[in-house]
Amino acid sequence: MQHSPTTGGLRVERSTPFIQLQDAGRFGVRHLGVTQSGALDWISMYWANWLLGNPLGAAVLEITLGNLNLLCEQDACLALAGADLGASLDGQPLAPWRSFNVRQGQQLKFAQPRHGARAYLAAPGGFDAPSVLGSCASMAREELGGLQGNGKPLATGERLTWRGTGLRQRSLDERLIPVFTPSPRLHLVMGAQIGDFSGQSLFDVFNSAWKIDSRSDRMGMRLLGPRLHCRRSSMVSEGIPLGAVQVPPDGQPIALLNDRQTIGGYPRLGALTPQAVARLAQCLPGEELRLAPVQQESAQDSHLRLLNQWRPG
């Protein structure tokens, strides 16, 4: 599927396979074997869109690990949230969590991670892209979404366009800016198979530091630490929610993310909360984290309080 962009916008002069268009995700199609995709750090995506008065789930550019150069082909107001990837505008440092004006001919560049892993760039009204199964979220494995509708990442020479005007610029109260502290504690809602793990394994889950494996991507983050043991040798495959923490036979957990498979047959410790998933998305390979149990009701209350930040009035 080809998409015919409007004139002007941002021209891609340098990119990597880790830079994609994402939105709030693709829902209502998992019975077809199609996963949700969407922005991994949905909180940063929300703030980037909020800064411009966009719908919170509007299409943004998810910039993972930097190494992106964009040429501004028209005057505009953009917004940036999430990781500090050493962004600059015509060589001047550009901090995240703010909206900013660009002029035609300026160079917008992202270097390498300084703090966090993923930055989110928003444009007025959201970036233009075709909707595929209700979303423009990029999903390379299933060849869905993205700028051309085929799931491919952003490529050199492509143009990003938008149709909004960006008249509703906002500033973000510093007290609301997420803090990516080292060794984060990620809340886990325990699942149905939690009782099948040995007592020692359950102790290790919540009392050990887990390191992010380099074999991690948008499908899932592998966690390295004590080997966990489960008494259940096999189980019927079942639906996999966002943030599910599976334990395969090697005993090393995998936190499943937006590009996960729709079903799985490994036992699960439970699922990370949506806030924990967003925080995990900002962890780099080699970083450490800890898991902390949380009651479902408490997790729901916390999630609703977070969503209240974006409610009108």
Question: Can you put this structure into words, describing what you see?
Answer:
The chain has helices at residues 42-50, 199-207, 274-280, 296-307, and strands at residues 10-14, 19-22, 60-64, 68-72, 76-84, 88-89, 92-93, 98-102, 107-110, 115-122, 159-160, 185-190, 210-212, 220-224, 238-239, 244-246, 254-256, 263-264, 268-272, 288-293. The longest helix has 12 residues, at 296-307. Strand 16 and strand 17 form a beta hairpin. It starts with 9 loop residues before the first strand and ends in a 6-residue tail after the last helix. The chain is globular. The protein is built from 4 helices and 20 strands. The protein has 313 residues and is an alpha+beta fold. The protein has 2 domains: 10-176, no CATH class; 185-310, Cyclophilin (Beta Barrel), CATH 2.40.100. It has a 7-stranded mixed β-barrel with strand order 12-19-16-17-14-13-20.
Keywords, please?
single chain, 313 residues, alpha+beta, Cyclophilin, 7-stranded mixed β-barrel, 6-stranded antiparallel beta sheet, 4 helices, 20 strands, globular, disordered N terminus
